[in-house]
Amino acid sequence: MWDRLLKTLRRTETEPFPDAPTRRVSGMAERPAASPTPAPAPAPQSVDGVGLGDAGLDHLPFPSTGPLGHRARMRERLLERGAESLADYELLEMLLFLAFKKGDTKPLAKSLINRFGSYAGVLVASPELLAVEPGVGPHSVAAIKLVQASAERLARAELADQPILNNWDRLIDYLTIAMAREPIEQFRILFLDNRNRLIANEIASRGTVNHTQVYVREVVKRALELHATALILVHNHPSGDPTASRDDIAMTAEIERAIQVMDIVLHDHLIIGKGRFLSFRQQGLIGRAAGRA
Asked: Domain ends where: 105, 121, 153?
């Protein structure tokens, strides 16, 4: 299931669901938007999807009716056939089970995917944007953000105590999950030891939709505090296009010159876009400072 989740977070688009509801639901409890179809017959009382009042109904075409029976069937599909047997909206539908004790969460799942463009878009949407959607309350927001945080931690854990340069694909996966869909620019620094293992992964600054300010002196100071021997710089482009700007190139060269004085190596500067990334080293943009020294 986690492999499916990580793949989904790297995906950029999904097809919309035209039949998703848009009407806001009022009331104290979280509920998905009301369906225009007639309400189903009341479902039997249950505990964790196991019916307590449906004994003797096995002869009926649908012994278990309503959302409770549907939830049990969804769980069976997941456990018996794996997450690949479920569509993206079904994964989100099941995720919303955490917020809604009963009821049909499929319309809300489809509505959220329509709004944010994909399952991944829902997972990384800010709590503020999620909370204003019809039918979404604090329990739904918490469930969605819990899954996002779990995916990030899983990807980060796979980098622990491993030489970063030997696990490049995993590094890109983690950075894509953590940064690709951020609505503003975020500048991170990966501090490495003399075996290229990760000492710290820190957000140095946050900016606007197209700019972030980085202070070279603070980069050098923090590297010395952590006894780092190498750095990888990372920032995202909210536009989704990872092309390096002139400011990106100039700032990278300035940091590279400053840390060289301290015998600290700049391995790379990565720009994370949506489904794409750019490596300064692969583009020949690392090492220029040494040539001009």
From this structure: 153
Average pLDDT, stretch 160-172?
87
pLDDT digits (tens, 9 = 90+) for 174-200: 999 889 888 889 999 999 999 999 999
> DSSP state, 267?
E
pLDDT value of position 201 = 92
SS3 call for 36: coil
Mark whether 169 and 252 lie in a shared domain. Answer: yes
- Is there a single domain that holds both residue 138 and residue 12? yes
Question: Which runs of E-coded beta strand occur in the chain?
Answer: 46-47, 50-51, 186-192, 198-206, 230-236, 265-272, 277-279
Residue written as token pair 């049990």: 72
Please, what sign has the CA dihedral across residues 152, 158, 160, 162?
negative
Contacts for 37 with CB less than 8 Å, ≥ 6 apart:
none
What is the total count of domains within the chain? 2
Sequence-distant contacts of 251-255: CB under 8 A, at least 24 apart: 251/214, 252/280, 252/285, 252/286, 253/288, 253/289, 253/292, 254/216, 254/289, 255/214, 255/216, 255/219, 255/231
pTM beyond cutoff 0.85? no
What is the DSSP secondary structure assignment for residue 290, as one 8-state letter? H
**Residue 207 structural domain:** 164-292
pLDDT tens per residue, range 49-82: 334 344 454 555 545 445 558 899 999 999 999 9
Residue type, position 216, single letter: V
Q: Does one domain contain both 140 and 195? A: no
Residue type present at position 185: E
How many other C-beta atoms lie within 10 A of the C-beta of residue 114? 20
